[in-house]
Design a protein that fits this description.
- This protein has about 525 residues and is of the alpha/beta class.
- Helices cover about 35% and strands about 15% of the residues.
- It has three domains: about 35-240, 2-enoyl-CoA Hydratase, Chain A, domain 1; about 265-430 and about 465-495, Alpha-Beta Complex (2-enoyl-CoA Hydratase, Chain A, domain 1), CATH 3.90.226.10; about 430-465, no CATH class.
- It has helices spanning about 1-15, 35-40, 100-120, 135-155, 175, 195-200, 210, 215-220, 230-245, 280-290, 335-350, 365-370, 375-385, 400-405, 430-440, 440-445, 450-465, 470-475, 485-495, and strands at about 50, 75-80, 85-90, 120-125, 160-165, 165-170, 180-185, 190, 225-230, 295-300, 305-315, 315-325, 355-360, 390-400, 415-420, 425, 480.
- The strands form three sheets. Strands 10, 11, 12, 13, 14, 15, 16 and 17 form an eight-stranded mixed sheet that branches.
- The radius of gyration is 26 Å and the shape is elongated.
- About 45% of the residues are buried.
- Bound molecules: hexanoyl-coenzyme A.
- Hexanoyl-coenzyme A binds near residues 129 and 140.
Length: about 525
């Protein structure tokens, strides 16, 4: 063994052991760090312990037999990030293109199992040409072994995938099952089939970047949750994300020290415009409510009509789901429903209390939405919120119309506390649409149609577009001044800290996927 370690050290010095070799500085590789550099950036200094450094592949085909490199293209182990235990694997593109062999997969599965047994996050730093071609079905099986463990670990420990190079073919399904995917702009890509297969099958000409780069997946597909300009930024984002997360599903959410002071926030008073049809940025409500600079947005560039992310309230992590009136008037559509549902389920898996901020005119109408399944997809959000047992609080800032009122964490689907600002409009639909339907006859008989419509609209708004009818029924617990929101939420979340809610006994529910 001593001889082997000596040999490993010698190979490391020569740059022949996995993970430490420099890449050629080609355009494609620009700014890419090695697997070991990435790990040392991620972990607290001196905390990383490597597992399986002496593993080599078993392949004896296509010239691989004479080229056994210690570590076999992946560095695995454990260490701490901000003094909390995490497990990591980092694929090493300098060894057989980081391709996944049988032994390489065994190394990854070993740390995944340790992560599950010890209840700590699992982090994958992906940079790989996919299944090692020379190993055939053994490498395909290796991928399936990882997918299977991803599924078993789902909801037990947070799983995070950083894509820092190629990630193609079936390999993409491991990150897809994990909780968060990060991508580096211009040096990483993910696709099921690459540009050449796309050209052959569909005759589309597309570059790897266009097809599956960070831009495509952050804006169009929503596959990636966070993007960064380079490896260093990507690792920094990953470390920041970890600060919000518990270690496992039985852990409590992280809480940093906070001394209560004057929690009134005057800034919240001036956000809602006088004109109910004018947009505003819900992020200013979020930053006004939460601890300073604590909002960490997820999926920022995807389905921008809903905002999701983590923040801290009096030091404690919360998850936020908020309609964004600045984009499509904050309407719920297929993408935003899916985005919010997935985030809600993550928070519920890991005991992260939910704050839902509501300003929603309803679901997006039209053939495109109907034919692509707004019914099934909208139901995902309804289902996810209804089954969430974490503390759930709602604040309606302005519109809460129609079915979207029900879906956005209403009292009726199990929310614990429901607040509304005086500007809230809780109704079946907006004043104009409602007046056109219920006063149709009166308006058509009037000599001045427009004048009559305006009169009826005002009448309707006065009667229905307020929070007070809902408050009379107890569907809203309290109508609060915007400046008091932070104070009220801190108290309400503290009150709910020991909430226990049990769902009916079942194997598992059947969310409309
Ligand atoms: C074995 C591989 C490899 C692979 C790359 N290499 N991919 N070796 N199996 N899958 C090796 C290359 O032979 C080369 O070795 C070195 O890694 C670097 O590769 P290059 O091609 O020189 O690098 P680059 O030009 O940067 O191109 C990177 C690449 C390309 C785009 C990833 O290598 C590529 O297209 N690879 C194949 C991708 C692929 O189709 N994989 C299978 C996907 S299907 P030398 O010795 O020359 O340095 C899949 C199924 C998973 O993964 C199924 C799960 C269910």
């Amino acid at each position: 063994m001593k001889a082997k370690i000596k040999l490993l050290n010698q190979k490391l010095a020569e740059g022949k052991a996995g993970g430490g070799r420099k890449r050629e500085d080609t355009q494609h590789n620009k700014g890419k760090l090695t697997a070991r550099e990435r790990i040392s950036l991620l972990m607290d200094p001196g905390s990383f312990e490597e597992i399986g450094a002496l593993v080599v592949h078993r392949s004896s085909d296509f010239g691989l037999e004479d080229d056994k490199i210690y570590g076999d293209g992946v560095v695995t182990g454990y260490g701490t990030v901000n003094h909390r235990l995490v497990y990591v694997f980092a694929q090493d593109f300098t060894v057989f293109g980081g391709s996944l062999s049988e032994t390489n997969s065994e190394k990854i599965c070993k740390v995944m199992e340790l992560a599950m047994k010890t209840g700590a996050p699992m982090i994958g730093l992906n940079d790989s040409g996919g299944a090692r071609i020379q190993e055939g079905v053994r490498s395909l099986g290796g991928y399936a072994d990882i997918f299977y463990r991803n599924v078993l670990a789902s909801g037990v420990i947070p799983q995070i995938s950083a894509i820092m190079g190629p990630c193609a073919g079936g390999a993409v399904y491991s990150p897809a099952i994990t909780d968060f995917t990060l991508m580096v702009e211009h040096t990483s890509y993910m696709f099921v089939t690459g540009p050449s297969v796309v050209k052959t099958v569909t005759n589309e000409s597309v570059t790897a970047e266009e097809l599956g780069g960070a831009g495509a997946h952050s804006v169009k597909s929503g596959v990636t949750h966070l993007t960064s300009a380079n490896d260093v930024e990507c690792i920094a984002q990953l470390k920041q994300l970890l600060t919000y997360l518990p270690q496992n599903c039985e852990d409590t959410t992280p809480k940093s020290p906070y001394t209560l002071g004057d929690e009134t926030r005057e800034v919240l008073e001036d956000i809602i415009p006088e004109n109910a049809n004018k947009a505003y940025d819900m992020r200013s409500v979020i930053t006004g409510i939460c601890d300073e600079a604590s909002f960490f947005e997820i999926h920022k560039d995807y389905a921008e009509n809903i905002v999701v992310g983590f923040a801290r309230l009096a030091g404690r992590t919360i998850g936020i789901v908020a309609n964004q009136p600045n984009r499509l008037a904050g309407v719920l559509d297929i993408k935003s429903s899916r985005k919010a549902a997935r985030f809600t389920r993550f928070c519920d898996c890991f005991n992260i209390p939910l704050l839902v901020l509501v300003d929603v005119p309803g679901f997006l109408p039209g053939t495109d939405q109907e034919w692509h399944g707004i019914i099934t997809n909208g139901a995902k959000l309804l289902y996810a919120l209804s089954e969430a047992t974490v503390p759930r609080i709602t604040v309606i800032t302005r519109k809460a119309y129609g079915g979207a009122y029900d879906v956005m964490n209403s009292k009726h689907i199990g929310a614990d506390m429901n607040f509304a600002w005086p500007s809230a409009e809780i109704a079946v639909m907006g004043a104009r649409g409602a007046s056109e339907i219920i006063f149709k006859k009166e308006i058509s008989e009037a000599t001045n149609h427009a004048g009559k419509l305006a009169e009826k609209e005002a009448e309707y708004a006065e009667k229905f577009a307020t929070p007070y009818l809902a408050a009379e029924r107890g569907f809203i617990d309290e109508v609060i001044e915007p400046k008091e929101t932070r104070k009220k939420l801190i108290k309400a979340f503290a009150m709910l800290e020991n909430k226990v809610a049990v769902l009916p006994k079942k194997k598992h529910g059947n969310i409309p996927l």
